[in-house]
Amino acid sequence: ERRKKITKIVDAVKTKKNEEQSATTPATTPSLQLATPQKFSLHLTKIPYTATQSTIRFAFLQKGCHVTSIRLVYDTNQSTGEKHFRGVAFVDLADEISFQKG
Question: What separation in angstroms does the CA of 76 have from each of 24, 72, 80, 85?
């Protein structure tokens, strides 16, 4: 019984959302689908705790990779508020060639 009520609510919300979308999008206007740029991201682990964004970027540049951004993961000590590097990073690369080299 409860499941039926939830299903009715979900269907009503979907219907309302579809009606709102049709009301705001004229039928004569073709919808434009913009291509989402492909993202090339690497997840790095076991990085030395002394590493910085600069040293990671330099290592990738030596391999001929075009790095767009680097995100380092930190832990925060709850009692002192001190942050320390976990040895994990995410490196975003500009293109597939850099991704293959990385």
Answer: 46, 13, 8, 9
Instruction: Enter the DSSP assignment of 47.
Output: -
C-alpha distances (whole Å) from 23 to each of 26, 27, 62, 99 are 7, 9, 54, 43
For 46-64, the pLDDT digits (tens) are 999 999 999 999 999 999 9
Query: By C-alpha distance, which of 38, 85, 91 is closest to 61?
Result: 91
Confirm whether pTM is higher than 0.90.
no
Give me the half-sphere count of Cα atoms (radius 13 Å) on the Cβ side of residue 66.
6
